[in-house]
Amino acid sequence: MRIRYVWPTTLGCLGLPQSVLAIDWNMPVGVTDVSREIHSLHMIIFWICVAIGVVVFGALFYSVFRYRRSRGARAASFHEHTTVEVIWTLIPTLILVAMAIPATATLKKMYDASAADLDVMITGQQWRWRYSYLGEDLALTSNLATPRSEVTGESPKSDNYLLEVDEPLVLPVDRKVRLLLTSDDVIHSWWVPDLAVKQDAVPGFVNENWVRINEPGIYRGQCAELCGRDHAFMPVVVKAVEPERFETWLAERKEAAAQAALGVDREWALDELMKRGEQVYGSICASCHQPDGQGSPPAFPALAGNQTMLNDVDYHIETVVNGVSGSAMPAFRNTLNAVEMAAVITYERNAWGNETGDAIQPARIAELLDAP
Amino acid sequence: MASHLPPGSSAQSHQLETAGTVSDTHYAGPKGLMRWLLTTNHKEIGTLYLLFSLSMFFIGGLFAMVVRAELFQPGLQLIQPEFFNQMTTMHGLIMVFGAVMPAFVGLANWMIPLQIGAPDMALPRLNNFSFWLLPVAFTMLLATLFMPGGAPNFGWTFYAPLSTTYAPPSTTFFIFSLHMAGISSILGAINIIATILNLRTPGMRMMDMPLFVWTWLITAFLLIAVMPVLAGVITMMLLDIHFGTSFFNAAGGGDPVLFQHLFWFFGHPEVYIMILPAFGIVSVILPTFARKPLFGYASMVYATAAIAILSFLVWAHHMFVVGLPLAAELFFMYSTMLISVPTGVKVFNWITTLFRGSLTFEPPMLFALAFVVLFTIGGFSGLMLAISPADFQYHDTYFVVAHFHYVLVPGAVFAIMAAVYYWLPKWTGHYPHLRLSQWHFWLSVIGVNLTFFPMHFAGLAGMPRRIPDYALQFADFNMVTSIGGFLFGLSQLLFVLVVVLCIRGGNKAPAKAWEGAEDLEWTVASPAPLHTFETPPDFTPHRH
């Protein structure tokens, strides 16, 4: 049922650019056994509906054309027929039972997340995903990578517009991966159509799903549950690689993470912190507090000229590390490391006309993180 | 039968004289604005409801146009995501609570007393109150657009904690206005039940009532059952926001999923509240223009009741991906699939009503036929959505948006329009302009399909709902949808034109405006005088 070519040709004649012509009309078959089963359930129920539609609409249009008064039709007066009514109650019931059997089998399979080879914790946060490889001491934060200028139309849109991230979730193929989903703030929903996994990430609860990818490749999806302003801008990208490559990648990333966490103990210069902080601010904070620090009150307060924050360093640090309960401000203690937090706090205290001159040292943050 | 009744009230015999009647002379209420503020007359209140609904239909429609304009092509062109979310939310809330529900209540006010031979609604002052709550409620809801932080922006389903901890300050006003709309609905429902159960003309048994009356009776019970649940859930939100409770706040030990269970326990019956009266309207119109009794009257009644009862047992099919246990998924999948059986019975009955009839295609019939076809398409996608494993792919995509718009726009809204075309001669004494009505119909049918059919494809291809910007592979579908949306939106101006022209003049309609019409409303003059059936009409059951 992939009609890939007819429609594009038609549109092509209308002068639409080639880049938008490769369109899909149907649910993807996907790259897991479950996604294939779901696709075939979808096609079965679709064709059942088509068949019923042909009969029902056929009867309707036949009546509409055959029994017009303008063609001299005279009305009969019958108004019930028990046998017919029983039959057309029973037949749909039987069709439904026949449909329910394979659906139940697939659902049971989808709910069996046991005996997984790898556990990944997926945490939704306004508006990014965080992936933790459980037992591996590695966590990644995955942000939208599409530049703002493409959204506003100042630069041309790339092929993977809104479906690209800075840090994809890397998974091994042919391994059963258990996905544990939760959220830091509102409900999100982690969805990759090719994997047929869509599962809500609910704050305070951990949901479970699993995936076993059959083919290496890059699979793209999006957050599916309205989660606030940038709901459209938190894509999911999964990169599936051979298990050996996955092991290599994992080792490299753990090494890199260890490197990045170094330097907690040394004294950092203001310039260094500002430079690092600007990067962190741009990828994490700017989506709410805006690139110019003006925020969008009342939900997201301005940071430029924010006296509460500027007058009280401890409050500022506390807010970034632990968040503000009952508000949209999340805790970053699990998302950023000590260096990143120190850098971004320094940046916020010295950018956009804020001129405190404070250089917050990573050691100070690390102390706070180590405290019970 | 009923020969003991006073003379001059016979429904069957003379039409123009019965016409209702004697009573315009002794009416000397207030004039001008006060007349409408204080009226207790079911026809005037019905008119108020319908006009209110029409204006909300255009306001909600305007919001939809803003949404479609932004989605015309990828990228952010016209509005920012914050405002986009306010538009989708307000569009949904206004259309559900402001346009569709009040339209059906307006039709009930006008037509139920006329169809059962009652002089008015059973509780006329309550009737006045339940209407005038609505303009207050919706003025307040619309006012949130101008408040700091903007209007509600969490979707018409307002899932917590997005609608509590993370909501704009205007949420409190939203809660209050929904409370008022809810009270209005409950009072309206009580009134409708009291009227139907107590004021039927002597000789009219329950199983003699027109289907519109039956479906509204069942709908009214649904309203009374579930509106308090809505009131409860929004009160819990209010407590979470202002009084430090944690019903839906996980940080305080609460459960965000509890919100969804409560909301959909209201929300799913609510869906049927918006479609059962539509079933009734179509069941009245098809026999009229097929000149043949409704096929399977009794099974229609039982099917409606079955749908209403099942509607309490399917709510969690809106929550298949929220993390329900396997047993719950299976239960809600089976119960949801079951709903297609009574719904199918209704469609089969309608088509068999047409079979071997003598059909003509006046505007009400056109809309009713389009209803049968397009509602059934919405039913098919509903059946697909019921298959829980497949719903993991459909959920929260444009496939769902396509589904519920098919059942609500060419479903509920087309039925309301069919009803308006059907009863306009009774209300105004004139037939609606035929050519303009036909233009309105065909433009609406084309517009509605152009708008909502491509949404199926966009959803299957992977486009989530409620996004202001989208990936490039969805661009074509969205452009077609937007063009269709503008066409549909503009063609509704024709509808207003038809209604205005019909009020001001047009071909005169007799008491029995449609040749095949059978029910009691066609025994009173057109336009129906302010007071009708002051003495109960004589009634002879005509078909069962």
Automatic annotation (TrEMBL), chain A:
<comment type="function">
    <text>Subunits I and II form the functional core of the enzyme complex. Electrons originating in cytochrome c are transferred via heme a and Cu(A) to the binuclear center formed by heme a3 and Cu(B).</text>
</comment>
<keyword id="KW-1278">Translocase</keyword>
<protein>
    <recommendedName>
        <fullName>Cytochrome c oxidase subunit 2</fullName>
        <ecNumber>7.1.1.9</ecNumber>
    </recommendedName>
</protein>
<keyword id="KW-0186">Copper</keyword>
<dbReference type="GO" id="GO:0004129">
    <property type="term" value="F:cytochrome-c oxidase activity"/>
</dbReference>
<feature type="transmembrane region" description="Helical">
    <location>
        <begin position="38"/>
        <end position="65"/>
    </location>
</feature>
<dbReference type="InterPro" id="IPR045187">
    <property type="entry name" value="CcO_II"/>
</dbReference>
<feature type="domain" description="Cytochrome c">
    <location>
        <begin position="272"/>
        <end position="352"/>
    </location>
</feature>
<dbReference type="InterPro" id="IPR036257">
    <property type="entry name" value="Cyt_c_oxidase_su2_TM_sf"/>
</dbReference>
<keyword id="KW-0408">Iron</keyword>
<feature type="domain" description="Cytochrome oxidase subunit II transmembrane region profile">
    <location>
        <begin position="14"/>
        <end position="114"/>
    </location>
</feature>
<dbReference type="InterPro" id="IPR009056">
    <property type="entry name" value="Cyt_c-like_dom"/>
</dbReference>
<dbReference type="InterPro" id="IPR002429">
    <property type="entry name" value="CcO_II-like_C"/>
</dbReference>
<dbReference type="InterPro" id="IPR014222">
    <property type="entry name" value="Cyt_c_oxidase_su2"/>
</dbReference>
<keyword id="KW-0812">Transmembrane</keyword>
<keyword id="KW-1133">Transmembrane helix</keyword>
<dbReference type="GO" id="GO:0016491">
    <property type="term" value="F:oxidoreductase activity"/>
</dbReference>
<keyword id="KW-0813">Transport</keyword>
<keyword id="KW-0679">Respiratory chain</keyword>
<keyword id="KW-0349">Heme</keyword>
<dbReference type="InterPro" id="IPR001505">
    <property type="entry name" value="Copper_CuA"/>
</dbReference>
<dbReference type="GO" id="GO:0042773">
    <property type="term" value="P:ATP synthesis coupled electron transport"/>
</dbReference>
Automatic annotation (TrEMBL), chain B:
<keyword id="KW-0249">Electron transport</keyword>
<dbReference type="InterPro" id="IPR014241">
    <property type="entry name" value="Cyt_c_oxidase_su1_bac"/>
</dbReference>
<dbReference type="InterPro" id="IPR033944">
    <property type="entry name" value="Cyt_c_oxase_su1_dom"/>
</dbReference>
<protein>
    <recommendedName>
        <fullName>Cytochrome c oxidase subunit 1</fullName>
        <ecNumber>7.1.1.9</ecNumber>
    </recommendedName>
</protein>
<keyword id="KW-0679">Respiratory chain</keyword>
<keyword id="KW-0408">Iron</keyword>
<dbReference type="GO" id="GO:0045277">
    <property type="term" value="C:respiratory chain complex IV"/>
</dbReference>
<feature type="transmembrane region" description="Helical">
    <location>
        <begin position="171"/>
        <end position="199"/>
    </location>
</feature>
<keyword id="KW-1133">Transmembrane helix</keyword>
<feature type="transmembrane region" description="Helical">
    <location>
        <begin position="211"/>
        <end position="239"/>
    </location>
</feature>
<comment type="similarity">
    <text>Belongs to the heme-copper respiratory oxidase family.</text>
</comment>
<dbReference type="GO" id="GO:0022904">
    <property type="term" value="P:respiratory electron transport chain"/>
</dbReference>
<keyword id="KW-0813">Transport</keyword>
<feature type="domain" description="Cytochrome oxidase subunit I profile">
    <location>
        <begin position="36"/>
        <end position="540"/>
    </location>
</feature>
<keyword id="KW-0186">Copper</keyword>
<feature type="transmembrane region" description="Helical">
    <location>
        <begin position="436"/>
        <end position="457"/>
    </location>
</feature>
<dbReference type="InterPro" id="IPR023616">
    <property type="entry name" value="Cyt_c_oxase-like_su1_dom"/>
</dbReference>
<keyword id="KW-0812">Transmembrane</keyword>
<dbReference type="InterPro" id="IPR023615">
    <property type="entry name" value="Cyt_c_Oxase_su1_BS"/>
</dbReference>
<feature type="transmembrane region" description="Helical">
    <location>
        <begin position="366"/>
        <end position="387"/>
    </location>
</feature>
<comment type="function">
    <text>Cytochrome c oxidase is the component of the respiratory chain that catalyzes the reduction of oxygen to water. Subunits 1-3 form the functional core of the enzyme complex. CO I is the catalytic subunit of the enzyme. Electrons originating in cytochrome c are transferred via the copper A center of subunit 2 and heme A of subunit 1 to the bimetallic center formed by heme A3 and copper B.</text>
</comment>
<dbReference type="Pfam" id="PF00115">
    <property type="entry name" value="COX1"/>
</dbReference>
